[in-house]
Amino acid sequence: MSDDSQAVIPPSFIELFIEPGRSRPSASRSAIAERYELCEDLAQMLTETAHEKLWQLGITEADVLERMHRGLIGGELALDAAEAWWVTQRLAELLDWPAPPIAPP
After folding, report:
1. How does pLDDT run across 66-88, given as a tens digit for each residue?
2. What is the DSSP letter of 15?
């Protein structure tokens, strides 16, 4: 992805790359944009799965999101804890569910 990409990366995602005490991201815009596209696509793809799990398992929305969060951390996608947290928050937003009680990294 080129640096002149027109993708709008939300500040909440850029913040994942800002180390405490710093004001600038620790990665290039293109690297952040690449990770953002992966995480946004993942959140979009998980919406159907989340609805299915809610219905199949008969659990709460928060339980579905917490289970999905655990799967993202232990999954094969190489998401770090911050990215997994962001995907879970974005998934809740897409589903119009309350944000899960998962502490940010």
Report:
1. 999 999 987 777 789 999 999 99
2. G
